[in-house]
Structures are given as C-alpha cells and as structure tokens.
Amino acid sequence: MTPDLDPQTDLSFTRTLAAPRSLIWECWTDPKHIPHFFVPAPHKVTAVDIDLRVGGRFDTTFEVEGNAMENHGVYLEVVPGEKLVFTDAYTEGWKPAPEPFMTAILLLSDAPGGGTTYTAIARHRNPEARKAHEEMGFIDGWGTVATQLETYARSLMP
C-alpha cells in the first residue's frame, strides 16, 4: 500500500500509534478534531473547513507566533479508514494555487498487536522544495503532529 517514494522529492516516516485506526481516521476527517493535533504546539489551528470528497476543500488557518497563516487545499483521494491525499497545488473547484508546496499522503492500517500503522508522506515539485521542507523540520514537525494526534485520540478512547 505504500506508494513508490522518490528520495529526490519525497519525505516520509512511519510510526505505530497506540489508538485504533477508526479513531485516527475520525480525527483527520472531522473538523472538530483537527485543532487538537494538526500543528505543533504552541502554534494553533484557529479555523478548519473540510469537505471530505475528492475535489473537496481542506482549508485550515494556523496561528504561528501571532501571525495567521491560511492554507487552502483540496482532497485528491479519499479511501475511508485507509488513505487521505490532499494538496495545496489546487483549491476547491480545481483552481490552481499560485505557489503550491506539496502533496500529503496519509496511510493508515491496523498495526500488528494493535493500534495504527501511520505513514505520512510529503511529495514536492522538485528537490529544492523537498530540501526546504526538510530544513523547516519535516520530521520533527510532522512527528510532533503524530505524537499530538496519538495523545488526543487516546483521550477520546473509552
């Protein structure tokens, strides 16, 4: 299920999260959950607008060091419980973005022994964009998001 990775343009990591896959999926697809994990603390998500369908919007606004950062994206693939693909290369209605950065792929599967095998992939237009994302702290930032997601999802478990 893992797509072919291009080391020149892709970044990725896989981690086992101690929460059921259905709950991890719910956290990623219900806008009420996104602010609880989607950006590394102390930064905040201040707005979320999701239309969960291929071609639907995935818009978020972050507050980073007092500055609002709007992110507009669109879902390219939605496989319930298994896969989300979204990009900032387009916005809803397939309108091209002026400065696209990446396409994100999230893969979920049941982990052996319980929990969720969580794979996050960021695909970039070119090696320079990949390198910039790596230097921005892809592994630490997305790893923190995965940790926050796991902690939040576990808080929702009965």
Give a structural overview.
A hairpin with a 3-residue loop joins strand 7 and strand 8. It is built from three helices and ten strands; from the N terminus they run E-H-E-E-E-E-E-E-E-E-E-H-H. A five-stranded antiparallel sheet has the order 1-10-9-6-5. The chain is an alpha+beta fold. Helices cover 24% and strands 38% of the residues. It is globular and about 45 Å long. 22% of the residues are buried. The termini are far apart. The model has no long low-confidence stretch (mean pLDDT 94).
The percent range for helix content is: 10-25%
Number of helices: 3
Element order, helices and strands? EHEEEEEEEEEHH
Task: Give the averaged pLDDT, no decimals.
Answer: 94
Oligomer: single chain
**How many strands?**
10
Q: Which structural class best describes the helix and strand composition?
A: alpha+beta
The outline comes out as globular
Strand content: 35-45%
Question: Could you list the spans in which at least 5 consecutive residues all have pLDDT below 50?
Answer: none
* Order of strands in the sheet with most strands: 1-10-9-6-5
As a whole number of angstroms, the C-alpha radius of gyration is 15 Å
Q: How would you characterize the largest beta sheet?
A: 5 strands, antiparallel
Determine the N-to-C terminus distance.
30 Å
Show the helix and strand layout:
Layout (H helix, E strand, L loop, with lengths): L9 E8 L3 H9 L14 E7 L7 E7 L2 E5 L2 E6 L3 E5 L2 E2 L3 E2 L5 E9 L5 E9 L2 H10 L1 H19 L2
Antiparallel strand pairs: 1-10, 2-3, 3-4, 5-6, 6-9, 7-8, 9-10
